[in-house]
Amino acid sequence: MRNRPHPFTSKAWRLVWAKVRGRVMPSLVLRTAALLAVLGFAPSSSLAAVVCPTCTLSVYGIDVTAFNGAIDWTSIDTSQLGFGIAKATEGTTFVDPRFAQNWSGLASAGLVRGAYARFQPYQDPTDQANHYLETVGSFGAGVLPPMLYFDISSGISAANVLSALGTWISVVKSATGLDPIIFTGKAIWTDAYNSNLGADLWIANYGAACPNLPTAWSDWLFWQYSGTGVVTGVNDVVGLDVFNGSLEQLNAYARVAAVPEPENFALLTAGLALLAWKRRRVEGRLS
Questions:
Q1: Residue 206: pLDDT over 90
Q2: Can you give 113-157 as a three-state secondary structure string?
Q3: Cα 215 from Cα 257, distance rounded (Å)
């Protein structure tokens, strides 16, 4: 099953710790929180922006860049993954040197795939958006909506950065018809950024049972819960992510066409059996 947690190889003690921290500790924290709730203890106000998943998390993915080198996508156990995300561009001219290979590798692996642009606040947002669109190309079936990574303000005011981000989103949405996803963290998207610009959230938050969100959002779509994952076939550590929903919901979000089922499967089966029976009788008479 593709939507079960993926067992990452443990090549060193830091990887064992990453697994314990990322899987065991969140489980313990969640159980402790549940027990406290039963006993009547309310969470503190500092946890007000902590938003736990709406379902049992089961659809995991990875995000990669050129820092991971040449990835052998054929050796990756894709049965443990539901999606993969690759860095595409940064600013107005830079293209991740491994984007083309990663983009085609994700497709050949049969994974839902996404591509993100790293935003540079001091560069023209329209040019950045067009550069990203030209690099990625089509956002067809199996491709996640456009993704924008914001991690640095470059000393520019929150109001001006928000305006520039809004321009990028407007250009990309106009070209694709899709609502973009913003990839950021609470420490970056502070309260000064008082709008989510109508975008879904891919939140980065490590070592937590549930992600702590910027106040501009009340829910999250993807969660990068570790930056030190290890996956066979990938050099160096990778980002580990999870989707806040089922595999069916992920496929629907990525506009993957479902295989239609017959309206009356039992009737179809009976009809096929009858045809086979008649064929055997005819063949029997002719022999």
A1: yes
A2: EEEEEECCCCCCHHHHHHHHHHHHCCCCCCECCCEEECCCCCCCC
A3: 35
